[in-house]
Design a protein that fits this description.
Length: about 140
């Protein structure tokens, strides 16, 4: 395994992907960081596509500025995942075509009811922002 592939594997695990998770990938195109995508795919055991209609454990969301409304994309991404699930938002890095402002990501996440957890660079062209759905509080019986 190359040093960059090893780094991508460690990054995927640090961001929260685990073996045997069902990870739904949204926004795939030929511009994605293929090495990171392959590492996530290998780590989890297979990515499912946008048409998957069962509950997923996590979402890998590739998003570019011209892909539409980010808040809408994030709300859509939360529809078939469990509370507390990981959504990894990948956007082009600063200065790259399709770059999304950090303030726009923060606002869209808040609108979608998500919490920002952390970010990390993914390859030369993409940056990852880890988002999590809130865990539903269990109400105690009175």
């Amino acid at each position: 395994m190359s040093a960059t592939a090893d780094h991508a594997e460690n990054l995927a695990a640090r961001l929260g992907f685990q073996s045997e998770q069902v990870v739904q990938e949204i926004g795939y195109d030929d511009d994605v960081d293929q090495e990171f995508r392959d590492v996530v795919d290998e780590l989890v055991g297979d990515l499912v596509d946008e048409d998957y209609d069962d509950v997923a454990d996590a979402v890998l969301l590739w998003f570019r500025e011209d892909d539409g409304d980010l808040a809408d994309a994030l709300v859509d991404a939360t529809e078939l995942i469990e509370d507390g699930a990981l959504i990894l938002l990948l956007t082009p890095k600063t200065g790259r075509p399709g770059y999304v402002e950090a303030s726009d990501i923060k606002e869209a996440a808040e609108t979608a009811g998500l919490s920002l957890a952390k970010g990390a660079p993914v390859g030369k062209e993409w940056a990852a922002t880890k988002l999590v759905t809130p865990k539903t509080a269990v109400k105690s019986k009175r």
